[in-house]
Amino acid sequence: MSLARNFAGAALAALMAVAAMGGAAMAQDGDKIVVAHRGASGYLPEHTLESKALAYMMGVDYLEQDLAMTKDDQLVVIHDHYLDRVTDVADKFPDRARADGRYYVIDFTLDEIKSLHFTEGFNLVDGQREQVYPERFPMFKSDFRIHTFAEEIEFIQGLNKTRGKDIGLYVETKAPWFHKQEGKDISKATLEVLRQYGYTSKDSNVIFQTFDYPDLKYVKTELMPKLGMELKTVILITGNDSKETYELVDGQWQPYDFNYLLDPAHFAEIAQYADGMSPAYKMLFDLEHTKLGHIVVNDLVKEAHAHGMVVHPYTIRKDALPEYVHNVDELYQAVLIDADADGVFTDFPDLGVGFLQKQQLHQ
Ligand code: G3P
Ligand code: CA
Question: For ligand 1, which residues put their CB under 6 angstroms from it?
Fold first, then answer.
């Protein structure tokens, strides 16, 4: 599938707005994209290379990478900036937790991290490990390891060579604000690795995403120009209760108010540094008037398109459906067809691709 096409879903006004911004040409066909969320994470432990290979063979358009930095400045592919939800770090390094009880990626070297077993995610309940999604791959079975960002790029580029395809990267810097507090610039490190592997322009098959909007502005206006790069960017949006992002206000780190990113009055400004938005899928719906079998769509996608931005909501999981759908296809229908999102993050990429193929919106 062509890359640029994925950013072509917006209306003519959107295309004109992008052209006015000097953005890359956007292809015209109507296909929508499937992003393998942490790989085919519904079937194999998230972010393992095995889950990326499986997703690749399911026909996705993009494979997602979440990134955190190690003590020795390596980028590793892991969803959290701590290790304890998906590894045996508490068994191997019991005295290395911080005061909050968490084991931070940034406190461990790459060698130490590679010595850990990577597993299906779990929570601690009364001191016992309880699998988050009980129907998924069993915890601590087989032998999975954490890998670096460079290793994943080489893996995907290798598969692109052997399969004769051009599947993209959808890269998220995790908690840039936290890495800054620790004296590390994760966005700069990420861009440097991408540049090393040939991803430098909007024609490169990569999308750079983050929840940290002040950092995305910095990436767009300072870092990329300094490094001679201009990649496609997407701003992630979550609820304020997630405490996902903090910003410096008068020298103090304050929780970021995500409502700012949901107000169309700000979309023209946001479009200056983001080619797209990635909200939680429920943000596309009027939840007050939505009920089982009757989903009411709001104007978020329409407004984003009118400002030249694509919309790739997250995350569709067939084993964690909202109360207003009977099955996963109803959710794909609501997000991709009724709300007209341009693509979707999903833990079950085969189901996303299959749904779109039935609609003739995917190869
Ligand atoms: O990056 C899109 C989606 O992955 C955002 O949620 O928390 O799974 O990274 P999260
Ligand atoms: Ca992510």
Answer: 37, 66, 79, 172, 209, 236, 278, 314-315, 345
How many residues can be counted in the chain?
Answer: 363
Question: For residue 248, what pLDDT is reported?
Answer: 87
Q: Nearest CA to 133 among 148, 143, 123?
A: 123
Give dist(CA 268, CA 287) in Å, integer: 25
Q: How far is the CA of 126 from the centre of ligand 2 (A)?
A: 28
Atom of ligand 1 nearest to the CA of 170: 1
At 145, list the tokens. Answer: 């390891």
Q: Is 81 a catalytic residue?
A: no
Residue among 161, 170, 159, 87 at smallest CA distance from 129: 87
To the query of whether residue 79 is one of the catalytic residues in this protein, the response is yes
Q: 23: exposed, middle or buried (C-beta count within 10 Å: 0-12, 13-18, 19+)? A: middle
Q: How far is the CA of 21 from the centre of ligand 1 (A)?
A: 27
Among the listed residues 79, 81, 117, 362, the single catalytic one is: 79
**314 Cα: distance to centroid of ligand 1 (angstroms):** 7
Reduced 3-state DSSP string for 40-88: CCCCCCCCCHHHHHHHHHCCCCEEEEEEEECCCCCEEECCCCECCCCEC
Which helix or strand (DSSP H or E) is residue 354 part of? helix 349-358
Q: pLDDT, tens digit, for every residue of 158-197? A: 999 999 999 999 999 999 999 999 999 999 999 999 999 9
Cβ atoms of 44 and 26 within 8 Å: the answer is: no
Which tens digit of pLDDT belongs to each residue from 317-326?
999 999 999 9
